Amino acid sequence: MQTGPMYFNGLYHFFYQYNPKGAVWGKLVWAHSVSKDLINWEALEPIIYPSKPFDINGCWSGSATILPGNKPIIFYTGIDTQNQQVQNYAIPKNYSDPYLREWVKPNKNNPIVVADESVNGSAFRDPTTAWFGKDGHWRILVGSRRKNRGIAHLYKSKDFVNWVKAEHPLHSKAKTGMWECPDFYPVSLSGKNGLDTSLVGPNLKHVFKVSLDVTRYDYYTVGKYHTQIDRYVPDNTSVDGWDGLRYDYGNFYASKSFFDAGKKRRILWGWANESDSTKNDVEKGWAGIQAIPRMVWLDSNGKQVLQWSVEELETLRGNKVHISNQQVKKGEHVEIKGITAAQADVEVTFLLPKSLDNAEEFDASWVNAQDLCGLKGSKVQGGVGPFGLLTLASSHLEEYTPVFFRVFKAPKKHVVLMCSDARSSSLMDGLYKPSFAGFVDVDLTDRKLSLRSLIDHSVVESFGAGGKTCILSRVYPTLAVFNDAHLYAFNNGTESITIENVNAWSMNSPRMN
């Protein structure tokens, strides 16, 4: 998983948890790759190994911060000789090296933050990127828990060396368990531009995200940071907890964002682990992937964030096919030919029928989207939907991963369900094949629903309604591989759906050195 991505002197640096001894959990190091465009990467030597009393049993996740004078610093969690989790720092050995190949862990001040008697030292990890307050203090958060209450402990420092725990956490919530990989950053009330992590003011809100160890999903709220009292208060527009908003309703965890000062955007990067067995991982020789880096910004409704893959991904687009104004009736499949369906970028806009009267009635008890998708999969006929894409499909549909919408009638507004259902994705045994799903908060006045799916052999990463709802699925087809993979648009609803536009591209592979 990623630890501390950053943009520094024209290069993107990607630090990530890595076991040099195999594709299984072990004593982790901080590996390091660099890129000029977030797409083509060069792997360098790992920068942090377990080597000191304060990290001898592991170098876990953390973050990078750019200090005044353009000097990067890394905070990370070390597992010390007592197997306690402590926070350490590392700095470049040579600031003039554009690749920042070597880092040092000063003995003098490490560990820089340790748990006091009020903090659970065995659940105390993943320091955030620091932000600078108007009072002249730097601040970081460290994830923790007290019994079953998730906590983001706040620490302050004037010199980035001597840190003092604040009297109260920035935020906490009962019955949420351990908070891993907290992230806290401002978002503008208008436009897509990202903001520096330290920015405060009237024309922004803050996003607070945690990775919940119990559920293995990333949850976030949008709210207000009260700088005078160092408290974050979520808006009352979404649930603060297990039933709240997620960055991604699929296989996406331990995400980290950073401010890209070069292009004035905030980049979000998440980790997707494997859904096959450890034995499979050992045979492959690798385990875990990064999702495509995403831009993240506040929706115009102020209630959630939107996400979209970084524009640089489009440089990998190859052969293009286009379809427009194609009606898809109940039970029909339309093959999207002329591209490499196992490695593709597909953007489609569906036009709904003029009347949605024949949409299914929504039951108020259907609060869990994944359960609902399991109940009403792509083969279960509805009124308006299910319709969408059959990705990584074999020629006779023995295998396929459907990504689709289903529209329901409800008293106040229509409810839109988005699914990425892996249950039919593979004939292989022993796989985790969930029916991932999320609801989409979208206005259907224009009768349009858009879907984008990035397909890459064992991953289908999908963005519904312009990035309102995102779902990443890990799948392992045995038949729908390489040139034997197919891509279809489909409709299993009684109401005909029109494909207003499909733009699909074969995707080239990036350069990996």
UniProtKB/TrEMBL annotation:
InterPro entries: ConA-like_dom_sf, Fructan_Metab_Enzymes, Glyco_hydro_32, Glyco_hydro_32_C, Glyco_hydro_32_N, Glyco_hydro_beta-prop_sf. GO terms for biological process: carbohydrate metabolic process. Pfam families: Glyco_hydro_32C (PF08244), Glyco_hydro_32N (PF00251). It is found in: Vacuole. Residues 312-506 form the Glycosyl hydrolase family 32 C-terminal domain. GO terms for cellular component: vacuole. The keyword Hydrolase applies. CDD domains: GH32_Fruct1-like. It catalyses: Hydrolysis of terminal non-reducing beta-D-fructofuranoside residues in beta-D-fructofuranosides. SMART domains: Glyco_32 (SM00640). Keywords: Glycosidase, Hydrolase, Vacuole. Residues 4-308 form the Glycosyl hydrolase family 32 N-terminal domain. One of its GO terms (molecular function) is beta-fructofuranosidase activity. Belongs to the glycosyl hydrolase 32 family. This is Beta-fructofuranosidase, insoluble isoenzyme 1-like.
